[in-house]
Give the backbone structure.
Amino acid sequence: MAVEVYAAAENDDKIHSDVLTKARESCYKARDAFYSCIEKQCDKKPTEIASVGLLYPKECKKSRDQFVNQCRSSWVKHFDRQYCQNKRAQQRLLDDKGSRRGPLSLPHAFKSTP
Amino acid sequence: MVSGPIIGGPFTLISKEKQTVTERNFLGNWVLLYFGYTSSPDIGPEQVQLMARAIDILESKQNLKVLPVFVTIDPQRDTPSQLRAYLEGLTGPVAAIRQMAQEYRVYFKKVEEDGGDYLVDSSHNMYLLNPNMEDVRCFGVEYNAEQLSEAIWKELNKKPS
């Protein structure tokens, strides 16, 4: 079965170079620059639409365009989704911290005795 | 932790040198199987190089031979040429098949289809097989080369049950 699949492949020699190391590095660099921009411009109103519900300020349009140019669209969506998930996780941590009233106090039974 | 044989049966694969590879090529050797695909956004060639480094460490420090095998879960796009380019510098047989992933019960499926582009969601990446082709251990991607080589060394030194 496997042999037939490969015999039939017409573009067997076509290489997707955008997933190899050099292109990956350019993509990751552009990605990181875009998300840094969002962090830096966090006081600006996010009016532009990225993907998967992520919005960003127009001040980051240039870095967004770079990011979209350097990376596959499925990767862009994947990274945007990851970014949103991380943001939500960070926010939950901050929210939890706010509701804590001090150090945890354990019952005496947990104190170790030699 | 996975224990016991999970290999489904004999298999036939195409290596990056376009040669036929079967389970007979692996019998008698310890094998480190890596299931992945070249279009993964998070995991690139450097992760696979890490596997190769772990194997080099084992060979130079412990004089142990472990065969690294990259199996793609995206045979549609990962042709032998693609795998060759992606794995430049990594020696060892490379295979591209969906059948093998199923027999190893590696869960995977296409997600986010966008024209011809898509991602592949998958379960654990690395399996260590003993010379009888039984899987003894699986590894996640959090190991570095030294940790991975140590973990493999531990398995190789376990007394057979």
Observations:
- Chain A touches chain B at residues 1-3, 5-6, 9, 11-17, 19-21, 24, 71-75, 77-79 (CB under 8 Å).
